[in-house]
Design brief:
three-stranded mixed β-sheet
Length: 432
């Protein structure tokens, strides 16, 4: 429900160049592309399918102006506001279920005329879609306010106001084409693609880029993008939603400070940024759930039983530890690449990928680009992080552990622009 659509149509043409300039400024802060830069070589394959951030931002801002105009949330009690958000998530789950039913009509060979047979279901889906369009802006507005209040209680705001204001929009997310050299794991390119891009076309694009540029590439799904408003994928999981919205808002918070402005300066700073956002996102998200949705607070971990002297049956074999197995894979790949064994490393990664698939982890492709992307998230030990990321993630985690509060941690690390500053801060705290 846009506010004064006629006025918006007059404003929009003037906003477009402003947004383009702002995006260009942020791009210049993050990386400078020289003639013949690897990113431009990759873009020769992607220009026609790249995501249009400018038009998306304009559309999202129009939706947010509509939310301000509605103001309905102000007339609901806090409990009713939380119930409305949960109703919206239930609606999303119902739509997803019905869409699955609709797929069955068109995949079942025994149904001769799926269009006619599915007519009642499609009518119901149309009704649900209309209800979602009505409910989504209000649910987003409520959740934004809840996150702002939570951030204020954690002393992450100025005078109770989040800077920048918390704004997010549920939307189909762009895909990301990640490109790494074959002989070392590092992210040379991260290009956003349109979300309507099926798996077979993703594989074809990866093959074209790999063969033409002798690189390792991978098209990955993402959970959010730190645009403004931030982009968040649709979900039915309230805990995940709280964590991701908080994670992306922290990216906006950091962008106004040296750490975020230096995001693309090097791999070290990218890892520091993502690890900081992961740590803060989880803590803020957990605090939001505890205050507004206490019934969804995860149960505490079960205590380890004391050993018994009684004869017990043979223990079950240990469950497959994804993080440990993935970390072992990364360390072995790093060593192989360091010794120049590129083909051997790639064959090893394919063997390991099959092991993960056998244990229920549907990894389509495990290569250098996979580790270049996932290795930047080092808020927990192990996983896809390698030797080079380990000290960075460990240092960020150490600074958080040594900080008296989340606000103290975020405010301190946000004014850093090098790994050396982080190391010095951790070492200073450890000095008796």
């Amino acid at each position: 429900m846009p506010v004064m659509p006629g006025l918006w149509s007059l404003i929009r043409p003037f906003l477009r160049p402003t947004i383009v300039v702002l995006m260009a400024v942020f791009s210049l802060q993050r990386s400078v592309l020289e003639p013949g830069d690897q990113v431009e070589r990759v873009r020769a394959f992607t220009r026609q399918i790249e995501f249009d951030y400018v038009n998306w931002t304009l559309d999202a801002l129009q939706d947010k102006l509509g939310q301000i105009g509605i103001g309905t949330a102000d007339y609901l009690t806090p409990d009713d506001q939380s119930l409305l958000v949960l109703d919206y998530l239930d609606l999303v789950a119902q739509i997803s279920q019905y869409e699955g039913y609709l797929d069955e009509y068109y995949t079942n060979p025994e149904i001769a005329n799926p269009e006619a047979a599915s007519e009642p279901l499609r009518q119901e889906l149309d009704r649900l879609y209309k209800h979602r369009r009505h409910l989504a802006p209000l649910a987003e507005s409520i959740f934004q306010n809840q996150l702002r209040t939570t951030a204020a209680e954690l002393d992450l705001t100025f005078g109770g106001q989040s800077i920048p204001p918390v704004l997010y929009h549920i939307t189909p997310l762009p895909l990301a084409l990640i490109v790494s050299p074959r002989d070392v794991i590092q992210q040379d390119a991260n290009i956003s693609l349109q979300h309507e891009y099926p798996t077979d076309q993703r594989a074809t694009l990866e093959t074209q880029v790999d063969q033409a540029l002798n690189v390792s590439s991978l098209v990955v799904n993402i959970g959010g993008v730190g645009t403004y408003p931030t982009m968040v994928v649709q979900t039915t999981n309230i805990n995940w939603l709280a964590e991701v919205v908080a994670h992306e808002w922290i990216h906006n918070f950091l962008t106004l400070r040296p750490l975020g402005a230096s995001y693309m300066k090097n791999a070290e700073l990218r890892t520091i940024n993502e690890t900081t956002a992961n740590i803060a996102g989880k803590e803020i998200g957990a605090a939001l759930i505890e205050r507004y949705y206490p019934e969804f607070v995860p149960p505490p971990p079960q205590p380890i039983a004391e050993p018994s002297e009684e004869i017990t049956p043979e223990p079950e074999p240990p469950a497959f530890d994804f993080r440990a197995e993935m970390h072992e894979t990364r360390l072995n790949v790093d060593q192989m690449l360091a010794e120049g064994e590129i083909e051997e490393a790639e064959a090893y990664m394919e063997t390991r990928r099959q092991l993960f698939v056998e244990n229920g982890y549907r990894i389509r492709k495990l290569n250098q680009a996979y580790f270049a992307f996932h290795g930047a998230y080092a808020d927990q030990p192990g996983g896809a992080a390698g030797v080079s990321e380990d000290p960075i993630g460990a240092a960020v985690r150490a600074l958080r552990a040594e900080s008296p509060s989340l606000a103290a941690f975020v405010n301190r690390i946000s004014w850093m622009w090098s790994f050396e500053q982080l190391q010095a801060a951790v070492e200073k705290n450890l000095t008796p």
